[in-house]
Amino acid sequence: MFADDGAPAADAAWSWIAGHDWQGWRLEIVTVHETLPPGDAPIRAARHVERVAPAEMRFVSCDHVDPRGDPRVVLLGYHGASLVVVGSHHRGHLAGLWAGSTTEWLIVGTPFPLLVARHGHRTRSVAICVDGSIHAHRAMEAYLSLPWSAQVTAHVLTVDDGTVDVEQALARATAAFAGRPVPPVTRLVGAAKRVIPDYVRDNQVDLVVLGTRGLTGLKRMAVGSTVSALLKDDAANLLIAHVVDDGTEGA
User: Fold this and answer.
1) Main-chain dihedrals φ then ψ at residue 245, nearest 5 degrees
2) What one-character DSSP code corresponds to residue 184?
3) In this structure, is the dihedral angle defined by the CA atoms of residues 251, 3, 59 and 18, taken in order, positive or negative?
């Protein structure tokens, strides 16, 4: 599912989608026209753009819908989506398709893997971050399910920060590549929110695959966030996943 508001950031996200082969996948383009309860401040209306998926993208089908309502509620209906793609409007903070709390909610609580597109070019290099958590494993599974993932240069990235069992994390990651070559492994030392963005910039990584614990509010302020650190610049697109406590999945 592509969440499209017609803004330049959405154009970049569409370019990213169009640069890949999606054989066997269905595409739904969703433009949410947000309506608010009486008394709330109005926000910028989404703009419908007639996107045309060229044959080279090889989607089984492509549909465009224009629902009205709270984007968070509308998107929750896509809990079965294999991937949801959004653009990112601003640099330096959590900002994506919609402003404020909607974007924060997209990153920490939605029930699907989420691709935050910072640029629109074709993916050539990927860093798959593993720490042994169910969140990282879900993100890696989402990446491996992409029909073009086997054609991309990938590295498995792990960080020894004193809290992660690196060998266990790598063993679990290796098992996920059953039947496929296991990418080279890079081990970093230090705080993940510092060394991962440095690695991404230094190695010109196009896509970072990682899990998030879904921290919000004071917890995020206290411990920081690798996702937040990666969103502070335009170095790479992010494929994020989060598994909530009850066993259901969210981005």
Assistant:
1) -60, -30
2) P
3) negative
Report all structural domains of the chain as residue ranges with CATH numbers, in order of start. Answer: 2-117 (3.40.50.620), 125-250 (3.40.50.620)
**Residue 152 · residue 144 · CB < 8 Å:** no
**What stretches in the chain show pLDDT beneath 50?**
91-101, 215-224, 246-251
Structure tokens at 31: 């433009």
CA distance 210 to 233: 16
So what's the pLDDT on residue 239? 95
Q: What is the pLDDT of residues 40-97, one digit of tens each?
A: 555 556 788 999 999 999 999 999 999 988 887 888 888 889 999 998 865 444 433 3
Beta carbons of 148 and 19 less than 8 angstroms apart? no
- Residue 250 has a pLDDT of 40
CA distances from 173 to 137, 142, 165, 183, 228 (A): 7, 13, 12, 10, 24
Q: What is the DSSP secondary structure assignment for residue 74, as one 8-state letter?
A: H
List phi, psi (to 5°) of 193.
-70, -10
CA distance 72 to 102: 6
Q: Write the single-letter amino acid at 60.
A: V
Tokens of 182: 């296991």
CA 205, CA 199: separation in Å to the nearest integer?
A: 8
In sequence order, what are the beta bridge partners of 160?
189
Residue 196: its pLDDT value, please? 94
pLDDT of residue 233: 72
C-beta neighbour count of 214 within 10 angstroms: 22
What's the pTM value of the predicted model, to 2 decimals?
Answer: 0.86
